[in-house]
Amino acid sequence: IKLPNAAEAIGIPQYQLSTWLKQQGLTYANWMTDLRIEEAKRMLTEHPEWNNETVAQQCGFSDRTYFQKKFKEKTGLSPAEYISKQ
Question: Cβ atoms within 10 A of the Cβ of 59, count?
Fold first, then answer.
């Protein structure tokens, strides 16, 4: 999802979303990754039986490997480690 589409989806002008991201010290890509990781954490908690491929697809990641890499970067845990700590 691109920035203009995200702004439209949440009902604010694109410039307002851009300004907010700058104020937060975020890039659009990092913000989207953070949102996707939060959604992945929710899915892993609610559906521990789902494999990483399914979670990655449901959260908008391009593939399982990229999802696992970003999940570990953001949480310090692999998805499997995250599930085991729940």
Answer: 21
